[in-house]
Amino acid sequence: MASVQPRLPERVATARSLARGCWSAFLDYETPKVIVVRNRRLGVVYRAVQLLILLYFVWVASGARAALSRRYVFIVQKSYQDSETGPESSIITKVKGITVSEHKVWDVEEYVKPPEGGSVFSIITRIEVTPSQTLGTCPESMKIHNSTCHSDDDCVAGELDMLGSGLRTGRCVPYYHGDSKTCEVSAWCPVEDGSSVSQFLGKMAPNFTILIKNSIHYPKFKFSKGNIASQKNDYLKHCTFDQDSDPYCPIFRLGFIVEQAGENFTELAHKGGVIGVIINWDCDLDLSESECNPKYSFRRLDPKHAAASSGYNFRFAKYYKINGTTTTRTLIKAYGIRIDVIVHGQAGKFSLIPTIINLATALTSIGVGSFLCDWILLTFMNKNKVYSHKKFDKVCTPRHPSSSWPVTLALVLGQAPPPPSHYSQDQPPSPPSGRGLTSGQGADQPLAVQPPWPCPISVPPEQMVDTFNQHIRERLPVPEPSQQDFLPTNPKGLAQL
Question: What are the boundaries of the signal sequence (predicted)?
Answer without folding.
Answer: none
